[in-house]
Amino acid sequence: MAKWVYRFGGGSAEGSADMRNLLGGKGANLAEMSALGLPVPPGFTITTEVCTYFYANGKTYPADLKVQVEDALRQIETIVGAQFGDAKKPLLVSVRSGARVSMPGMMDTVLNLGLNDETAKGLAKQSGDERFAYDSYRRFIQMYGNVVLGAEHHSFEEILELHKSDLGLDTDTKLKAEHWKKVIEDYKAKVEEEIGKPFPQDPKEQLWGAIGAVFGSWNIQRAVTYRKLNHIPEDWGTAVSVQAMVFGNMGEDCATGVAFTRNPSTGAKEFYGEYLVNAQGEDVVAGIRTPQQVTIAGKKANNSTLPAMEEVMPTVFKQLDQVRAQLEKHYCDMQDVEFTVQQGKLYMLQTRNGKRTAAAALKIAVDLCNEGLIDEATAVARIDPASLDQLLHPTLDPKAKKEVVARGLPASPGAASGQVVFTADDAEDRAAKGADVILVRVETSPEDIHGMHAAVGILTTRGGMTSHAAVVARGMGRPCVSGAGDIRVDAGKKLMVVRGQRVAEGDIITIDGGTGEVMIGQIPTIQPSLSGDFATLMSWADKVRKLKVRTNADTPSDARTARDFGAEGIGLCRTEHMFFDGDRIVAVREMIMADTVEGRKKALAKILPMQRQDFVELFKIMRGLPVTIRLLDPPLHEFLPHSREEMAEIAKAAGVTPDAVAARTAQLRETNPMLGHRGCRLGITYPEIYEMQARAIFEAAAAVHKEIGETVDAEIMIPLVGIPKELTLMKAVVERVAAEVEKAAGFKLPYMIGTMIELPRACLLAGEIAKEAEFFSFGTNDLTQTTYGLSRDDAASFITAYERQSIIKKDPFISIDVEGVGELVQIGTERGRKVRPKLKIGICGEHGGDPASVHFCAKVGLDYVSCSPYRVPIAKLAAAQATLSGSDGRKGEG
Ligand code: ADP
Ligand code: MG
Ligand code: MG
Question: Which CATH number fits domain 545-635+670-884: 3.40.718.10, 3.80.10.10, 3.20.20.60, 2.20.25.420?
Answer without folding.
Answer: 3.20.20.60
